[in-house]
Amino acid sequence: MSEQHRASEAIYHPIPQAPVASNVIPTASPDLDLDEEVVLAEVPAVLSHNLADTRIRWIHFLLGCAVLLPWNALITATPYFQSRVAGTSLKSVFSSYLSTTFTAANFLFLAHATVTAKKASNTRRVLYSLTALAALCFLLTFSTYTHPAPGGFFAFVLLNAIGQAAAGSYLQTAVVAVASLFGPAAMQALMSGQAAVAVVISGVQVLSALASVGSSKPEMIVASSEPEEQSAFVFFGLSTVFLLVCVGVYTWLVSLPAYKAVTSQRSARRPSTAEGASLLHEENGIDTVHELRKPEQKNYAVRLAKTNGTFNLAVAYVFIVTLAVFPPITISVTSTNSSVHPLVFSAIHFLMFNVGDFTGRTLCSLPSLHVWSARRLLTLSLLRTLFIPLFLMCNIQWSSSQSSSGPVIGSDALFMLLMVAFGLTNGYVSSMCMMAAPSLAHNPRLQGRAEDVDVAATVASFCLVGGLAVGSILSFAVRAAVCDCNPFTE
């Protein structure tokens, strides 16, 4: 990642070795609304912000990679999964079922992970989740050597996806909560890591697809699934190794003085009389929570969900639009050039989206491009709806026969440019929402309450996954509206 930003209107200090209060009062951001500026000006002295050093940022970058690695590995392997159910009605709907199953399970488990976040040990959640994800990825790697019946393979992949969604949910809440304590710099690194892993996986898929296809002709994909198997083996195997590496990386993180300092600050900052307060103790990197006011804590997340409602809606809608068409609809777009192998074209389309997504998240490290206003971020999120009709104008091949006068957008290059723009706006808007929602310096809705920071970040993350789930379900509706068919069977 590039050097993390420092907002010009907020003063950051290195993490002290003991809890120290800062008398800095953040000034209003130039793009905040007038009423937000007034609230921000009334906020009392805000506790010191934690500036993550280079090691902390890189660790969160890697953890960000681990958070979205399972999802990206699954959707990038769509051609492999489809090749295993070729010749059945499952092929055309596999992607929609996979994305819906994963995101729905992710949403349900994340709801539990969010509600129990204050009671749980972040360290245990991270280590157990990473280990479980590594085991599940290994099973997918092993699947490339087996050839079960299409129905059995379909069930296996969906069950594996549910398992990865469950483990990923607890991993996500834990790493987002930890990153929020280090400030926007660590959060931006975490978000960029989520996009970077997608670029790496899709890049590996493109290279392995090119190597696997070799000199074969496009029509050979119907007769053999060997290229997809070889491609899937490579990135599922690499995913397994990477997740095991992340276990060691997080173990190193909890041993660093900076981590112990920020968690000790967190303990000191949480007053016993605050709403939903709890006392956090860190002992050898394993945190335990003693609840002090359980009745209030029950509504803690709900209160913050309402407080940051605009940010939460904006980040959710970003992914509602994205998952409504990507990948269930976009993977149905085929090249207008018959010499381009379908496997390669599909792999490149994933790469273009992920490059755009990573670029958008990286742009958030530039202070001059920051948008902290909740209303402006919501507007940008809503404008992404325009991408849906644009993709439907491309060269989509539906399984059902229907009259067509040809695609309005018949250029492969233009389709790929649309994918880059789609990814760029996805990464930029979602990252800014995740950075702004838990920021004491830029979110006046928090009113300087340091004890709300990690929960605000966790709730925003939950809304993000909620958007993924809703978008996946809507992909069936989008398909039905366009192909005039049963989206669950065709």
Descriptive labels:
transport, mainly alpha, Growth Hormone, Chain: A, transmembrane, nicotinamide riboside transmembrane transporter activity, 64% helix, 490 residues
Word description of this protein:
By secondary structure, the protein is an all-alpha fold. The chain is built from 17 helices and 2 strands. The chain has one domain: MFS general substrate transporter like domains (Growth Hormone, Chain: A, Up-down Bundle), CATH 1.20.1250. The relative contact order is 0.16. The model is unreliable at 1-30, 37-51 and 271-295 (pLDDT under 50). Keywords: Membrane, Transmembrane, Transmembrane helix, Transport.
Which helices and strands appear, and what pairs or packs with what?
Elements: H1 34-42, H2 54-76, H3 78-84, H4 90-115, H5 122-143, H6 150-181, H7 184-213, H8 226-253, H9 257-269, E1 278-283, E2 286-291, H10 294-298, H11 300-307, H12 309-325, H13 342-363, H14 374-383, H15 387-392, H16 412-436, H17 453-483
Antiparallel strand pairs: 1-2
Helix pairs in contact: 2-6, 2-7, 2-8, 3-4, 3-8, 4-6, 4-17, 5-6, 5-8, 6-7, 6-17, 7-8, 7-13, 7-16, 11-17, 12-14, 12-16, 12-17, 13-16, 14-16, 16-17
Percent of residues in helices comes to 55-70%
The topology string of helices and strands comes to: HHHHHHHHHEEHHHHHHHH
What ranges have pLDDT less than 50 throughout 5 or more consecutive residues? Answer: 1-30, 37-51, 271-295
Structural class by secondary-structure content: mainly alpha
CATH class: Mainly Alpha
Proportion of beta-strand residues: under 5%
How is the quaternary structure best described? single chain
The CATH superfamily is identified as MFS general substrate transporter like domains
Spatial order of the strands in the main sheet? Answer: 1-2
What distance separates the N and C termini? 42 Å
Question: Which term fits the overall shape?
Answer: globular
What characterizes the major β-sheet? 2 strands, antiparallel
Mean pLDDT: 78
CATH fold title: Growth Hormone, Chain: A
User: In the residues, how many domains can be counted?
Assistant: 1
CATH structural architecture: Up-down Bundle
The helix count comes to 17
Secondary structure tally: strands: 2
Task: Tell me the Rg in angstroms.
Answer: 23 Å
Membrane topology: Multi-pass membrane protein
InterPro entries: Eqnu_transpt (IPR002259), MFS_trans_sf (IPR036259)
Protein name: Nucleoside transporter-domain-containing protein
GO molecular function, one term: nicotinamide riboside transmembrane transporter activity
